[in-house]
Amino acid sequence: MTDGWNGYQPGRPAGQQAPGPLPSSPAPSYPVSPGPMPSPYAAPPGSVPASPWWSDALGDPWRDPHAPAAVVLPPGPTGAAEPERVVDPNAPRPPGNRSVLVVAVVSALLAGLLGGSLGYAFAARNGVGGGTALGGNGATPPAAANRPPDSLAGVAARLLPSVVTVRVASSEGSSLGSGFVVSADGYVITNDHVVEGGGTKTYTAVFSDGSVASAKLVGQDPESDIAVIKLAREGLTPIEFGDSDTIAVGDPVLAIGSPLALANTVTSGIVSAVDRTIQAGDPGGPVRYYAAIQTDAAVNQGNSGGPLVDGGGRVIGVNAVIKSVSADDQTAGNIGLAFAIPINQAKRVAQDIIDTGKARRTVIGAKVTNGRTTGTGVRLDTVEPGGPAESAGLRAGDIVTRIDRHPLEESTDLIALVRKYAPGAVVTVEYRRGTETQTASVTLAADAQ
Fold first, then answer.
1. Picking from 6-20, 120-134, 276-290, which range would have the lowest pLDDT averaged per residue?
2. Nearest C-alpha neighbor of 277 from the set 202, 372, 208
3. Summary mean pLDDT of the chain
4. Where in the numbering of this chain does the PDZ domain appear (predicted)?
5. Of 162, 175, 192, 193, which one is the catalytic site residue?
6. Are residues 278 and 334 in the same domain?
């Protein structure tokens, strides 16, 4: 069988037959040859073929394996053109993309080795992986004593030496509360309910550094819940007083004391309300009235008598009462509702105790109906002759609706707000008589007792 071209030889005119069939040859074995062998299909010397090899000649399985890998055309008439070269499709191709791939892989390996080396060097320098140190080498935080004075830490560090844990021991048991130094010679303000009770008592104060000083009771005022003790130590640093009349809701505050016997505890919060009227006291004991500062700073049993301070470290109140969902004092705890006696009132009462041994009580010279009245305001049941209310023109039956723009809803509001002021203070009272609303300026006085 032939491929149909065995009768055609390049350079032979069409229609002429070949002299005879080509001799058969064994299957090609592609030996290495010392050089090209002449092709039986080569054109006679001097002749010009009508066309080059057919397009798939190189892929012809019957082609002579010793034939050249390309067909060279004779030069054109001018002799200037370079011969056209036809590349054998079976010949090996140049590397091309393979070289690019190899370069990319080698580059990635080198980059990985370099990155790993640098990472190891940094880790070793920072102590990681060496088994000797943990953590980074960031900026060293300042020591507690070097905190900015106006920071919370700075305020706490400055005030803790002036806050004490008050311990009271007697044959009936012992109790614990808080207090704060208000003079260099050892006077300390605390709550009356911290030092109250019968029997012979001994008082001690424990400072933030653990040192202990004995103390004696100077005096107490059960209705205002303020007491003063005197330490057997001098050269102390008193706490700075603020002005409780200038605070506002939202001001930041700190509460310092010994809640649940955890001495030197500092908690933070804000002023939640001002002039929050509170009536407190144990059954059978004195009834206490507060126009208090409300705060959400965490306050618990043991905080009583400790200071509530503003962001500048000035005391603005004496922590005294908490509200709790538990009616049992032993299980009551902080729920974000704590109340402090305004420092302006506490300071005045403490000064009276130090100077005279007892405190004056501020009054308006009238008695009021307990609880709420119809509508808003507090009804005056009786007005004392010659007292502050009568002198200002008030009469029994009048309904007081406001004191210095503070609305009144029940008798507790009137009593607590009046006792917040010092004797001799002048307040504006708004009241209703019949259908008319009137105002009067009332000069408050001290109780005769």
1. 6-20
2. 372
3. 81
4. 353-412
5. 193
6. yes
